[in-house]
Design goal:
- About 40% of the residues lie in helices and about 20% in strands.
- α1 (about 10-20) packs across α2.
- It has 4 domains: about 1-5 and about 460-570, OB fold (Dihydrolipoamide Acetyltransferase, E2P) (Beta Barrel), CATH 2.40.50; about 50-260, inorganic pyrophosphatase (n-terminal core), CATH 3.90.1640.30; about 260-335, no CATH class; about 350-450, Diaminopimelate Epimerase, Chain A, domain 1.
- The strands form 4 sheets. The chain has a 7-stranded mixed sheet with strand order 13-14-18-19-17-16-15.
- It is of the alpha/beta class.
- The protein is built from 20 helices and 19 strands.
- It has helices at about 10-20, 25-30, 40-45, 60-75, 85-100, 115, 120-130, 145-155, 180-185, 195-215, 230-235, 245-260, 265-270, 280-300, 305-310, 315-350, 370-380, 405-410, 435-450, 470-480, and strands spanning about 1-5, 80, 105-110, 135-140, 160-165, 175-180, 355-360, 385-390, 390-400, 415-420, 425-430, 460, 465, 495-500, 505, 510-515, 525-530, 540-555, 555-570.
- The model has no long low-confidence stretch (mean pLDDT about 90).
Length: about 575
């Protein structure tokens, strides 16, 4: 793997470091995050809720607030329809929770993934209504491209509000109140990159502002900040850029999560192996809590995590959290089997191709997205993994740098049914009989963009450090940059000429425990781990290492640890 170093304006690094009185490495990382002056740096390092813009600046939000207030005052029948991932779940919980406090009892639901597919559909609407047609239908984290479904709702006399952040394939929907900053708002708007959980938080803010202006006593004891934990979960799990308003919301949301005030969150954190009172970081959501929420939507019914997060009874929450944990273990087992089969087929069928499309008649459509991510990372190729649902092949694609899946799918759109998503991750469905032709067109489309082959995979280093800089004091400085995510990546540091004094210890499948030497010679040095390492370094030979550093929490104690990302023989003497 090629190692590169992020290009940096060195004078700006020194300027920020001096003006903020912070170590040079922190100044460097701030520059990498797009910070160019002390004022911006202060806003980044010290997020403030007061810096959130007026919710009514968001296009169509006032109209949505007015229509919801009408429903509240008339005690209308309302349905809240959310997507089945973390963003959709946390968005649904926010809105249902607030409407209940305003003395409405909305029905809530999510699509049944295996029966109804992604997003808003006539089939899902009929199931939800079951003959009881509401006055107002609010779709969250879906609906931007659901023209047919919206028309179907309007034919039945139902008013529709769409709150979504997905890109429009054609024209935005009409005959509804449509909130989507990617479609309606300026590219420079600070709320432009909000996921739906963030947009719903804006909606709640608008409702509360309007109700307080009307002296509604029902909102006297409602604290908007109490919803920040849900916003952080949706924002971090949905991989939106963590800058501007996303950074503010996720930063405060993580701090709110640490208190585990919401009983469902506390129960979920506990079954996820997160200690009570532990400082929570973005990886706790990405790798522990989010997979358990998503597993329910992939394999079962995503209503389960909604019920978990709405319930006020801890024991009931604990039972539901354990159910989610069991479902997630089942998901992991299914995923491992499919991933092994997929990786073997890639080496046989796509070894010389720039892209991969694999279909398995017995592959569960609910886990193929995870498999696609794994395969794409391993082989550095855009990858689509498909499972069977009757006569349809349904699945997910994951991409690599330089290949926009949305554009590739557009080139193949005549073969596709439902499809959509983001440049790096998208869902797709097509007829099984069209899979072979789609595979050919998919590969040809990538060839057209990269006729000389995909770029060599690379690892971008944030900075080179000396071994003595890899310490707890470095971590304390890095804490100020959290949360990590899209647009604020966790830094990877390079260290030259490291000589391991203890041999790496193998555990699991190509995983290793390691320990760095202590440059002072006074202790054993920092402990670390390497995951799925193709080969372990040897002792007493100088190597260059690429590492991430983080805190490890155990029994209410925290210690510094590192993760070995890559290594190579060094030409530098220790």
């Amino acid at each position: 793997m090629l190692w590169t170093i992020t290009a940096t304006n060195e004078s700006l690094v020194h300027q920020l470091s001096d003006s903020l009185e912070v170590p040079e490495v922190l100044g460097r990382l701030l520059v990498h995050a797009g910070i160019e002056d002390a004022v911006s740096a202060d806003a980044f390092l010290r997020p403030r809720l007061a810096n959130l813009d007026d919710p009514f600046a968001l296009t169509n939000l006032r109209a949505a607030v007015t229509r919801i207030e009408q429903a509240v005052e008339a005690k209308e029948s309302v349905v809240v329809f959310g997507d089945y991932d973390v963003d959709g779940v946390t968005s649904t919980v926010q809105l249902v929770s607030l409407l209940r406090k305003l003395e409405l009892d909305p029905r809530y639901c999510v699509p049944l993934r295996l029966e109804e597919g992604y997003g808003l559909s006539k089939q899902a609407i009929d199931r939800v209504f079951a003959g009881n047609i509401p006055k107002l239908f609010i779709a969250l984290d879906c609906g931007t491209n659901a023209h047919e479904a919206i028309h179907y709702l309007r034919e039945q006399g139902v008013d529709v509000i769409i709150v979504d952040h997905h890109q429009s394939k054609t024209q935005p929907p009409n005959d509804c109140i449509f909130i989507n900053p990617h479609v309606n708002d300026s590219a420079s708007a600070p709320w432009r990159e909000l996921c739906t959980a963030g947009l719903v938080f804006k909606l709640l803010h608008g409702i509360l502002k309007s109700r307080r202006a009307a002296n509604d006593p029902r909102v006297d004891n409602i604290q908007l900040k109490d919803y920040l934990d849900l916003v952080a979960m949706g924002t971090i799990a949905d991989l939106v850029p963590l800058h501007k308003e996303n950074r503010i919301l996720s930063w405060f949301g993580l701090h709110h999560l640490r208190g585990n005030i919401r009983k469902g969150v506390r129960a979920l954190a506990e079954v996820s192996g997160i200690s009570t009172g532990q400082e929570m970081v973005s990886s706790d959501i990405s790798f522990k809590m989010a997979p358990r929420i998503n597993a329910s939507g992939r394999l079962a019914d995503a209503s389960l995590p909604i019920e978990l997060l709405l319930d006020e009874d801890y024991q009931a929450c604990r039972t539901r959290a354990e159910q989610l944990d069991t479902i997630n273990r089942e998901r992991q087992a299914i995923e491992r089997r499919i991933a092994q089969e997929a990786e073997e087929r890639v080496m046989r069928e796509f070894n010389d191709e720039p892209g991969v499309v694999l279909y398995g008649a017995d592959w569960h459509p609910g886990v193929v997205g995870i498999v696609a991510s794994r395969v794409s990372r391993r082989f550095n190729k855009p990858c689509v993994i498909l499972g069977a649902e009757g006569e349809l092949a349904k699945g997910s694609g994951r991409s690599v740098e330089g290949v926009n899946l949305v554009e590739v799918f557009k080139d193949c759109s005549d073969l596709l049914g439902h499809w959509g998503g983001h440049p790096m991750a998208a869902g797709v469905s097509l007829k099984v009989v069209d899979v072979e032709v789609f595979t050919q067109r998919f590969v040809e489309s990538i060839h057209a963009v990269h006729p000389n082959g995909l770029p060599e995979p690379s690892l971008r280093l944030s900075a080179w450090l000396k071994l003595e800089q890899v310490s707890e004091s470095l971590l304390e400085q890095l804490d100020r940059l959290h949360p990590y995510g899209q647009g604020n990546s966790e830094p990877v540091f390079g260290v030259r000429g490291v000589v391991l004094e203890e041999p790496p210890k193998l555990f699991g499948e190509n995983n290793y425990r390691l320990r760095l030497p202590d440059p002072t010679g006074q202790s054993r040095g920092m402990a670390g781990v390497a995951w799925r390492l193709s080969g372990a370094p040897t002792i007493l030979q100088p190597i260059d290492i690429a590492i991430r550093v983080s805190w490890n929490f155990w029994r209410n104690q925290r210690t510094a640890q590192f993760t070995l990302v890559d290594w190579k023989n060094s030409e530098v003497n220790a």
